[in-house]
Design brief:
Blueprint (H helix, E strand, L loop, with lengths): L4 H15 L7 E5 L6 H12 L5 E5 L10 H11 L1 E23 L6 E8 L4 E6 L1 H9 L6 E6 L5 E7 L15 E2 L7 E11 H8 L6 H5 L7 H16 L3 E5 L1 E5 L6 H10 L7 E6 L3 E3 L6 E3 L4 H6 E5 L5 H14 L3 E2 L1 H13 L2 H17 L4 E2 L1 H10 L3 H10 L12 H7 L1
Parallel strand pairs: 1-12, 1-15, 2-11, 7-8, 11-12, 16-17
Antiparallel strand pairs: 3-4, 3-6, 3-9, 3-10, 4-5, 6-7, 13-14
The protein binds adenosine-5'-triphosphate and magnesium ion.
The site of adenosine-5'-triphosphate (ATP) has 17 residues, from helix 2 and helix 12.
């Protein structure tokens, strides 16, 4: 990313706090003029957070278009943004394979076998069932491999080859990883950790849908009782040290599209025991709060605004626009002549960054049409003439309003006649 240093620094601070798990239940508002990189900053944040911290992005208007209620879809979005890190202890067998012996019965169906496995201190023989034999064959386990077997699931993983076998196997190729033969007991307890979201736990436990709903995304409404039970359970796990809460980030883009009911829901949800960090973005100044007749800064009720820390994005300078556009051109594999880039930058300054970057693709098509691989000044000029930016479009509509239809679908000229 280019420029927007203050906003990015602020986002960086928030990132640190999210990673430390410290500002759950806070709201952050990113406010600024259109195409100043608000959405881009949020997306950047989500990528830096990594896969361990949940990040959910929704758009304000989206929750009105679903067939579940507004509050249900907000609840789901909130719960998708809270991770539960569950710790589990499993028993594993870890050692170096001494011998695998498989007896095939004459009929071919049932297989039996024995696995001899050792550590530096002990050696044991295990009876093998059908499933284990399949697993060993699939992983191509040989004598001399160091393996780890999960006792509960029977899952086998190869850790590498034992150093003691290094000499006999010159032919194994350079990829072979050599490891020490494990010490001590063959059976060990190992802690495994996985992170799921509260929403995923909800879906799996709501009997109507079952976990398949996770794949179709069609989860419907989830009963409040189910959620209450899960909250209690998770709180218990937390007490017992089995689980850890990982507050993630819920990003609501175009937040001014929400109405007063949604805002009061968010206000309340932020006080919940399990609350993520809510990051909102808007390009509105003083505007009406949907569902009311009041005007408020950013179209947000004062109580929510009061809770939020606000980050401002400012319009880009010419240099920054220049850099962003040339990065964009490289990404689109378009080659820009210097004067073409200069004109695009000027257009970007006078209209918007988004319009200027849209012109890149269009100008490229025009350049291709005249069989040039480079976008020249004339291509950009032509693209500018063919496609209007919002200002010119507004001007055009005002000038020729008589030819357009009005809200009732009546053309201005027709109206003159009927009046
Ligand atoms: N600092 C930047 N570096 C690189 N590209 C940027 C930067 N800022 C914005 N862009 C690009 O500019 C375009 C507009 O940015 P973005 O969509 O984030 O604006 P926005 O502030 O969310 O606007 P709106 O209020 O209209 O939603 C995007 O294509 C984005 O990739
Ligand atoms: Mg945006």
């Amino acid at each position: 990313m280019v420029g927007q240093l203050k906003a990015r620094k602020a986002a960086g601070v928030i990132l640190k706090m999210v990673q430390a798990g410290r500002i759950a239940g806070r709201a952050v508002l990113v406010a600024g003029p259109p195409s100043t990189g608000k959405t881009a900053i949020a997306m950047g944040l989500s990528q830096t957070l990594g896969s361990e911290v949940p990040f959910t992005a929704i758009s304000g208007s989206e929750i009105f278009s679903l067939d579940i209620s507004k509050t249900e879809s907000l609840t789901q979005a909130f719960r998708k943004s809270i991770g539960i890190r569950i710790k589990e202890e499993t028993e594993i067998i870890e050692g170096e394979v001494v011998e695998i012996q498989i007896d095939r019965s004459i009929t071919g169906g049932h297989k039996q076998g024995k696995l001899t496995i050792k550590t530096t201190d002990m050696e044991t023989i295990y009876e093998l069932g059908n499933k284990m034999i399949e697993g060993l064959t699939k992983e191509k386990v040989l004598a001399g491999d160091v393996v780890s077997i999960d006792k509960a699931s029977g899952k086998i993983s190869k850790l590498g080859r034992s150093f003691t076998r290094a000499r006999d196997y010159d032919a194994m190729g350079p990829e072979t990883k050599f490891v020490q033969c494990p010490e001590g007991e063959l059976q060990k307890r190992k802690e495994v950790v996985h992170t799921v979201s509260l929403h995923e736990i909800d879906v799996i436990n709501s009997r109507q849908q079952g976990f398949l709903a996770l794949f179709s995304g069609d989860t419907g409404e989830i009963q409040a009782e189910v959620r209450d039970q899960i909250n209690t359970k998770v709180a218990e796990w937390k007490e017992e040290g089995k689980a850890e809460i990982v507050p993630g980030v819920l990003f609501i883009d175009e937040v001014h599209m929400l109405d007063i009911e949604c805002f009061s829901f968010i206000n309340r949800a932020l006080e919940d025991e399990f609350a993520p960090i809510v990051m909102m973005a808007t390009n509105r100044g003083l505007s009406k709060i949907r569902g009311t007749n009041y005007k408020a800064p950013h179209g947000l009720p004062m109580d929510l605004l009061d809770r939020s820390i606000i980050i401002h994005t400012a319009p880009y300078s010419a240099d920054e626009i220049n850099t962003i556009l040339s990065i964009r051109a490289t990404e689109e594999e378009a080659e820009l002549a210097p004067d073409a880039l200069a004109l695009l930058t000027k257009i970007g300054q006078e209209t918007s960054l988004r319009y200027a970057s849209n012109l890149i693709a269009v100008s490229q098509q025009i350049a291709i049409k005249r069989r040039s691989s480079t976008i020249e000044l004339t291509d950009v000029k032509r693209a500018y003439m063919l496609f209007l930016d919002s200002d010119r479009s507004v001007q055009y509509v005002e000038e020729f309003s008589s030819q357009y239809l009005d809200d009732n679908g009546v053309a201005f000229t027709e109206k003159m006649e009927t009046d």
